[in-house]
Amino acid sequence: MLLGLVLVLAVVNGRILQTERQLRDGELVYLQLAPVDPRSLMQGDYMALNFALANAIRRAGHSGSQVGGGANNGRVIVRLDAQGVARFVALDDGRELAAGQRTLRYRQRKGRVRFATDAYFFQEGTGARYEAARYGAFRVSQAGAMLLVGLHDEELQRIQPQP
């Protein structure tokens, strides 16, 4: 039983360290937000997220590519502009990437393409400050795994949480 506990703790702590490393060392990439229903700001302490890149993936005909690791997962090839904003190039089909390109992982659930999360939670009563959000900022690992780290305005300035 003790050995089992040690094993579980080792796995959990290993995952925590991996996530902390990605938050510290991951490449900062911005995804432009697509219009979302403003009512979600009023429903509670979160904002529903939808990204323009997800719309591009749907238009390109995502069909559950096996390249991303399963029937409902995939990878998209993007090019980062000078500010780090990701622009759609193509769905990943396993070919060699051109200079300046990288892949990002996504998953498709219930007909929606998602990157890391589809909601951003914030402190109660601070929803109005997030109405200016135009970009989601992600830390991206070498493998294309994404962690949402904040929302940014049109000038890529982070929208600071309430102190």
Automatic annotation (TrEMBL):
Q: Which Pfam families match?
A: GDYXXLXY
Q: Which InterPro entries does the protein's record reference?
A: GDYXXLXY
What is the recorded name of this protein? Membrane-anchored protein
